[in-house]
Amino acid sequence: MPSYELSLEAEQDLLDIALYGLVNFGLQQSEDYRDGVKKRFQALAERPLQYQAVDEIREGYRRSVYRSHSIYYRVEGTRIVIMRILGRQDTTSAVKGS
User: Fold this and answer.
1) pLDDT tens per residue across span 58-70
2) What is the rounded CA–CA span in Å between residue 23 and residue 10?
3) pTM, full prediction
């Protein structure tokens, strides 16, 4: 089965998303959203080239949009590395700084 890994920044992004969801929408909504994001990670691992390359943002990165978040990742052999999971803030500068 294809696999994925999260960078330290992506792990923190996922925690921040869960906390924001908990505070603003409650536990169930937060867990549902997190589970949806994780399902997208697995889908990315299974078909990593399905989503667009964003070399203009950062060389070697691809982006998948899940609801209000952009998931930035790299393909590394038979696995993918999730680099960032960013919301509506200026994602371009956040990704370039990773």
Assistant:
1) 999 999 999 999 9
2) 20
3) 0.89
